[in-house]
Amino acid sequence: MCGIFGEYLFCGEIEIDRCVNKLNLLERRGPDGFGFEFGNYKEGKYQLYHNQDMLKNSKDLNPQFNYFSGHRRLSILDLSENAFQPMETSDKRYSIIFNGEIYNYIELKKELTALGVRFHTDHSDTEVLLNAYSEWGTDCLCRIRGMFAFAIFDRVNQTVFLARDRIGQKPLYYEFSDEKFSFSSELNPLIQFSNSKRKIDLEGLRYYMAFGYIPHPISIFEGIKKLPPASYALVDLKEKLIQIERYWDVSFSEGNETETFEDYKEDVEKLITESAALRLRSDVPVGAFISGGIDSTLVVKKIKEIGKKKFDIFGADFPQEDKSEKKYMEKVASRYEQNLNVSYIDLSHVENIENVVKVFDEPFDGGSSIALFDLFKVASKTYKVILTGDGGDEMFSGYTYYSSLPQRHKKFKYLKILFFPEILLSLLWVLRIRNRKIRKLLQLIQGDILTAGLIFSTESDLLELMKNENPPSLEIGFFEEIRSKIKKLKLQPATALQYFDVNTILPGRMLYKLDRFSMYYSVEARSPLLDHLLAEKAFSIPQEMKERDGKTKSLLKRILEDDFDKGFVHRKKQGFGNPLSHWFKNSKRGDIFKILLDEKSLIYHFLDYKRLHACFPQIKGGFDGTREKTLWRLIVLGQYLENYKSYIEH
What we know:
alpha+beta, Glutamine Phosphoribosylpyrophosphate, subunit 1, domain 1, Rossmann fold, 3 domains, 7-stranded antiparallel sheet, globular
């Protein structure tokens, strides 16, 4: 797990000192060392450095260099100096910088060795990945099991190959213009140490206002994009061209009609065991997070069964009784004989919001942010690798709305058949007798299941707070590509919602948060339930097997039924959120709303001050117990914009 940054100029000369400074912005992602190469790709000249201080001599270097490729290292596999990056092939044609892990590197290395490939490191997955590309080209992506974002420079053809893992666990930003091509694990290296300020991408801001995060491929800044999950980009430096292709998607093949519930359970458990075993490959200690829920408990169970000795598991608890999951975490620790470490998240943690928001390079309102932030802080004192339970809900139907929303949507479609309600609501809208409920009801009647899903997860009225903006329809952006595929495949409503989440909320929200918090504390977060083979299996299982007898995540719960009582396994899903309402109620108004109270805050360059305060009188009058999640979204945006104020054009 590391951080990568690269910059290739189409004209002009690279400033090496500036590039090194940009690379060092990623130090938390890789505190164990660094490496970089720079040169002139047109002339085939380059120099390679690993952990060497060359800055004092940089002025004496040949000034004709036009590219820089750098890496910050977090040592997990093969801790030797031979495994440093950038790493080049024996023939010097290819060099790689790589963020992530290739879990099946042992198997791939055996396959490559049989083909005559010689290796120079003991067991570096980076060298395996590099030689896999050299041997198989883009087809290497189909053979890899892992989480990754990497760049491979072809010095002969003058091309750069970028790739991102299938589910989107590892981030990769890029910028392509007439002057240069650059990329980075985070936004900061692309915007800092620049001679000009950046414009906020208003489309990205609209997405944040509506959804609380910014989905790929756009970012919060104009001109900077995210490489989508399961995609690669090939950049031709000579022709100044970039080509982006998707190399993987979950399949929707029908399951075997003869397979029983127990058959599916055995197949799923076998894949989870295999996935967990691969993610335990490490040269440093491995721990795990525990919430007391099904997914994280299942991961701890598998670690124990695979044979790992006693290790630490980390969980967060809240003082409010209705939020506490401590007794369930204790059951898991006792059952699998592991050391439980509990972090208590109380009112004092809300004061940490400024530090939490600084971790994000884009505005993000993740509900469990403060608790997860604290967990990684505690775990980082003794562990470099943590296993998590992320992905179980999206893959195995853990959210109740996968079944409840289609039922509600059917009722709204009956209203459409009657015509009169739709005509009445449309008339009210035309006459400007409009509010949130009327608009949402009209959209629910007129839209499909994805529209319904978006409506119930959207704060569309917040768009009206933006200056000089007409609220856009929910039929926006890249969502349409997913909608088209769902229609083409004729997916069942529940499957359609899961597929939508896997392509949007999971990488853009859940995994974004996981990556930023883990990397801030130099910890690698691995998620066995996000293995792509497990995902393919999950989407081939009939919905009635994943949600059986009205119970969510039936297959995963069945795996745990032999270890725990029904009260543990089949209890109502608690989630891992923050008690925002309690915090707001017990915090001083001037402290928690200070960004929104200041009319000079940068947020009011984009939002209308009077309209916002008219919609949310709680900001001045005090929290009244309503819309705490929406208020949190606004607070986070305000704090983010203040943090990045010096880089934003306004």
